[in-house]
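LAB NOTEBOOK - FOLDING QUEUE
OPERATOR: T.R.
BATCH SIZE: 2
PURPOSE: Compare the predicted structure-token outputs for two unrelated chains run back to back under identical settings.
PRIORITY: normal
REVIEWER: second-year student, initials M.K.

ITEM 1
FIELD SEQUENCE / FIELD STRUCTURE:
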Amino acid sequence: MEFFNPHLYDLSNPELWVAVALILFFLAAWRAGAFRTVGAALDAKAAKIQSDLDEAARLRTEAQAMLEKLRGERVEAEAQAQAMLKAAEDEAERLQVEAELRLAESIARREALAERRIAQAEAQATAEVKAAAAEQAAAAAERVLAARLASGSADPLIDQAIGQIGTRLN
């Protein structure tokens, strides 16, 4: 063992003086309160680190709570979007059915209007044909009468029928 070596305690040994200086340095540092200062600084640093860890844990807990809240809001927003989409689809379907009904009504009205116009055109054509036939009959009767008058013979029944032709054809 080197500690019990008598040469170690010789005053000419530099290692002895280094050990004595080191011991005196530690005693002076202890007397000046350096160990308390270093201990207080280390305690303060440990307290700051613990405070930072506590703050980080609190922030993490808040972030987790906020994340859960946002996830819940996202689910709620998705459900609301689905409901809005369903309502829009229902409204579009209702509008389509309503438009089809209006189109069918419009087609039926136009058909009825076309049928009325066709019936009116038929009635007008019939009236025009009757008027033309009456004019033709009147003209033919006029020619027959003119030919009879020119020949000089008169038939009272024919004269009476010719007189009634104009009123019966109209």
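ITEM 2
FIELD SEQUENCE / FIELD STRUCTURE:
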Amino acid sequence: MITRHLVIGAGGSRAFLTGLGAVVALRLSGLKEWSTIGGVSGGSIPALFMAHGLDPAELIDRLLEIDFRKLMKGTASGSDVMFDHAADDEGNLPRARGFVARLLERSALHTDLLGEAVESVVKEWPENFWTMAMSEKSHVLFTQIGVWEYGFDGSVRMLSSEPAPVGLAIRATCAIPGLLEPVKYKGLVLFDGSLSPFGGCPVAFVRRHFLAESDLVVKCRSVGKGEKRDRWLVNLGRRLLCHESRKVEVEAQEADINIEPVMPELHTFRFRLSPELKLRGLLAGFNAAVGELARHSLHFEGRLEALAQCLNFHELLRLLGVETRVE
């Protein structure tokens, strides 16, 4: 029985790029079976692709194709399928309670195209995938077998026995306050999952919800430009939007394996990404994962395929046996 869990943390476009690189390394290492695979905010998308089973060559193709600037727009156009899931069981539409949350409902950028892009790749919810978003009063956990609300007061209730649309869940966990629109679901207004008191890479939450106290947990959390500013903004957002989250008791639990890609030239909110920068991010994630897996190979009882770090992207392509459009 597989008892290991992968958690890919927040970090905007940097988390997306380095997370994909780590996913490529994990798959090439032969680590394809996991009890759960999940992530929050920018880390949710590579986690989703990993759980869906995209092969490394296809992951690279998706990376080169995606343009985040075209997936976010200033005004909503047409009908949004998300609206069908906004009301609670009694038909009431959600309304943010706090002044700041009501103000941020008018965020500058809409993300329906992001949801559509995700669902063009992953149409059905992968069996072992999860992601999480925040309301003003709770964590909301999205899984293949339903959606749960964990109140800051300790209450737990099932919001749905069916999975939410994949695109909706990704939009919710990526809803950066003040930048990307919040998501309305089952009577709740949802914001970025990184606002959780469990942090931007919620290992302790995984151990608690999935009863994984003694299981192997692998964490991927990137670091880069603007780390101090990012922490300040997350703490500010948590205080303004989820101030009751201070009631939550958070255990100081660490992952067993910590993959920490470093991208000093890339900050969280940079969405204009050149092909060269995308590939550097992918390579940083790949090499960080290869190094960390080698240091902890005993955890896998000889089941790891041996990999070496790559000096440049072309070495990685030769390893994959594929060609790229990028020179």
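REVIEWER COMMENT (ITEM 2): The chain has a mean pLDDT of 85.
FOLLOW-UP: none requested
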